[in-house]
Amino acid sequence: LTGARRLLTTLWTLYGEPALPVATELVERVGLPLARELVFEPQARLRALAAPTLAQVRDGEDVALFRLLLSDADFGVQAAAVRAAGVARRGDLREEIAMRARLGASEVRCAALEALGALGGSDSLEVMIAGLSSPEVQVQSAAVSGLAQLGDPQSLPILSSILDRGADSPLFAKAVEGLEALGPSAHAELLRLAEDVGSPGRRGGALILARAGVGAATSALIDLLTANPRDRELLDELAFLTVVDLRAELDPAEAYFQ
Question: Band of the pLDDT at 254, cuts 50, 70, 90?
Answer without folding.
Answer: confident
